[in-house]
Amino acid sequence: MIILTINAGSSSLKISIFEKKKSLTEKAFIHIDGISKKNCHILYNSKTHEFNQEIEIKNHSEALEIGLFTLLESEALNSLEDISAIGHRIVHGGELYKEAIKIDKDVLKNLEKISSIAPLHNPVNIESYKESLKYFKKTPQIAIFDTAFNQSIEEKNYLYAIPKFFYKDHKIRKYGFHGISHNFVTKEALKLLKNDKAKIISCHIGNGASITATIGGKAIDTSMGFTPLEGIIMGTRSGSIDPGLIFHILDKLKISSKKLYKLLNEESGLKAISEISHDMREIYASSLAKDEKAILAIEMLSSSIKKTIGAYLAELNGADAIVFTGGLGEKAFYVREKSLSTLKFAGIEIDKTKNKKNELEIHKTNSKTKIFIIKSDEQKEIAIETHRFLENSK
Which of 123, 167, 238, 252 has the smallest set of CB atoms within 10 Å of its CB? Predict the structure, then answer.
């Protein structure tokens, strides 16, 4: 069985080919980043070919065409007809979709309605699906939702303390995101712990960042909310702020809500604090040169992570493991160290030497809570869920 996975971001497209025999094996991976931008490039990796080059791509439709052509030209695929199923990452499934589902006209219509609460992602997810129909008219196409993992969260943790009609009539509630990533690393941590009932706090820390608390692989709470803006400080997003501040800014600066939304999503977070970049690598380099704003950015991010971990330790009554994933979570040892340095009282003790080497296990031997660095693999998780759906549908 050959499974194609399509993961469309706001300006990116990831495509993978997986072969299912005894286990799932990735045969080829394509990452097109910077779609419609000047610095767009394509990364390709397979057993026989590897390249990274600049490329001009206008939109996601063109990106998919180029991606499929590359798979055929490199002979990672003999024919598009060899593909048994396609798994699409869909960022927002609302409350309608709690698990994977085959995309049909009704599902597509529902996804288009939900697009208003995920305007940066759902439209390009849908565009990629529609474009794929040109090449795969009869191949089953399965939607894998980023929000599905968080549908196990109880009402007490997903409702906002605002009049109930907002939820009843408009479905305004916490949905959470990065669910595919949290699901993958949580399952990997359960294997490492050899305990399928373990309590785990997973920290997906990249340009976008979220933290999720789970018990036995089921989400109990998560830091992102109705939109990906809520939660901890991120690369360009503010994270949670005083809601009253929004009205104060609108009143004092006389700017539009659209402009404020862009400011909080694209001009805030680490970028605003450091006044250097949203990229932690640049911020860290400046911090070594004693740049005070860079140091402050690292301190604020670490504090933000620490406070959320602390809240979830209370929610779970302790944790068996804390997992770090995402580009920053996997590599920024200094952020991990600062985030966990004062949690010794909770049985969390980080080994600074192992942490600096970015090892799999970075806890001290006497730490009651394990600390893991696990690289997330969303493409593989999409393939796993796609295969599971097909097996369950037989």
Answer: 252
Nearest to 381 by CA among 220, 225, 205, 179: 179
**Which one of 82, 104, 106, 146 is the catalytic residue?**
146
Q: Is 146 in the active site?
A: yes
pLDDT tens sequence across 11-61: 899 999 999 988 999 999 999 999 998 889 999 999 888 999 999 999 999
Cα angle for residues 118, 91, 60 (degrees, 5° grid) = 85
Residues 39, 56: Cα–Cα separation, whole Å: 8
> pLDDT at position 194, please?
98
Give the pLDDT of residue 116: 79
Residue 38: CB atoms within 10 Å: 7
What does the alpha-carbon distance between residue 268 and residue 265 come to, in Å, rounded to a whole number? 6
Angstrom distance (rounded) from CA 21 to CA 152: 31
HEC string of 53-118 equals EECCCCCHHHHHHHHHHHHHHCCCCCCHHHCCEEEEEECCCCCCCCCCEECCHHHHHHHHHHHHHC
- Residues in the chain with pLDDT values less than 50: none
Domains by residue range for the chain, with CATH:
2-145 (3.30.420.40), 195-373 (3.30.420.40)
Question: What is the rounded CA–CA span in Å between residue 211 and residue 368?
Answer: 20
